[in-house]
Amino acid sequence: MKKLLRSALRVSAAVGLIIGGAVVYLMQPLLTAPSARPSPSADRTALRRTVERLSREFIPRDCEHPERLAAAAEFIRAELATAGAATREQTYEADGKQYKNVIATFGADASPAIVVGAHYDACGKLPAADDNASGVAGLLDLARLLAKSPPATRVDLVAYSTEEPPYFRTEQMGSVVHAKSLRADGTELRAMISLEMIGYFSDEAGSQGFPSPLLRALYPSKGNFIAVVGKIGGGSLVRTVKSAMTSAAPLPVYSLNAPGSLMGIDLSDHRSYWAEGYPAVMITDTAFFRNRAYHTDRDTADRLDYERMAQVVEGTLAAVLELAR
Q1: pTM of the predicted model, to two decimals?
Q2: Residue 200: per-residue pLDDT
């Protein structure tokens, strides 16, 4: 009986270690440095202004209205140029229509490079304030910040078209076009960061959803945090980004390292870089797991939290500068 008990205890301890190790890997890093806001700070007013313009003036901006997407692209290009970036456009075709990615470059012309991207197209004839005018607003403010804090290596900020259906997960995604062009040119990437819905937060209990019961047991029930999402094997990049973001702003930052097959893990432009063998993560408010207005006409600018969005941008700046060292 004693032997059976000892054997059962050993098995229980081993199972506990395995589960504990899995949790640590899933959520790494668990311990991060205290926050200290970087200088310069993100522009809350500019973030709101960009989201309002994209979600009110550039409707529709879906693939069925390439002329409106072209107008949005020109607005984005002009804003990036005003920030002091060298800009260029990457034009491509999908089903006989022409679309474009807008690219801005900062920093020294050194390799490996860093890419930060956000899609500016919308799903259907919707305002799409969080999805993804918020990511584009973050990208434009990041341009202003990088102009003041030039990175030590090349940083490309890329605004993508055709991320939304029917082109999602196809060769006609703007980010697929861009990632493939980098691979064809032999460009080495240190990291790609996708800004995908970074503006919706809630302090209500139960406001945060998850794709599995296990995650529900490990993460907060309030949607008051930002998430850094990576895939199995990409823990090093997730650790670097999460640690830098946590050190830069008081907003809680949680991370997830999971198989790409888990619902929500690959639902943005970072997946295009994974496909080309590049390290990539997504920074997100978790989209439809939190924002119930996802892909509806209720996804409007007035529902977003620009203070916490600004903290996401400040954290992203810290991550980019850390990766560029």
Answers
A1: 0.91
A2: 99
